[in-house]
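Journal club side-thread
Mid-discussion, someone asked how the predicted structure for our own chain would compare to the paper's figures. Pasting it here so we can look after the session.
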Amino acid sequence: MTFPRIAFGTPRKLPKPKELKGRVAVLDIAFAAGAGGASFETTTKPFIDGLGERLASWIDHHDHAMHAAYEHDPRFVLRTKAQHGACPELVTPERVAAAGVVDTICCHTDFDGLCSAAKWIRCGAEPYPGADDDARAIDTRMGKPSERANVIDRALRARPRDDAMRGLIVKFLADGCEDLAVFKQIEKASEALRVREDEARRLALSYEVQNDIALVRVPLPHAPYDKTLLLMIGQERARISIALDETALTVAARFDSGIDLLERLGLDGGMPTVVSLMPKDLEDVLRKLGWPANADQ
């Protein structure tokens, strides 16, 4: 089993093409949606053009208007979140084989992305039986993932900026999850999430609810918190939850809510049920979602 180099990226923050060695597979990274200071034209397209013929494959499952521009390029396997709740199920033996030799995998930083990378390394085979289902449960927050997947997801959420932990997890998954000593390291990292979850629950006490929208403003200073849990608590109180802190404005709805935030906010692409924007966009977002004009902002 050949282990390529692993790089990490997000729709808004991609590595420089020149930093990626050889032929590259991009997995579970959406085209930038025109939100949060990034757009397809300023972020995604320069990355694609910079890789040029070195781009071996791009597999993703997030909505975007620009998917149509690449539908005739066999390197691109672009689907929507409604079609595929997670990316690993799109990483098949046939697609890995068709791409040929890949020197670098650039993947998203969550369980979905890391599992996709590990599955690619394993030539399209799941890291363990049920891994695709686990990725779908975690990425949609619907259903119950296995305990193994839950531990990995929690470790990633506990260390949201730790590339070393991400690399360790990719190798653990790619090796078939057989190294119990490595799993213990991941398990230990996951335990740190409890402190972030406690802070999220404390912050959730400040949710305001108007017109089926739950809004929480995270004050400065604040301790590290788990934004996923904070938004999920908001969704227990309203169909749409919004968390505002000094770095981002995050809007979310349940995967089965029927709400398309991209349409309602006029964005080009991304996840229909989770959108991240700049804090300065709060007033515009609240207006588009129907927050009462006379409510305190």
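Post-session note: The chain has two domains: 5-191, 195-289.
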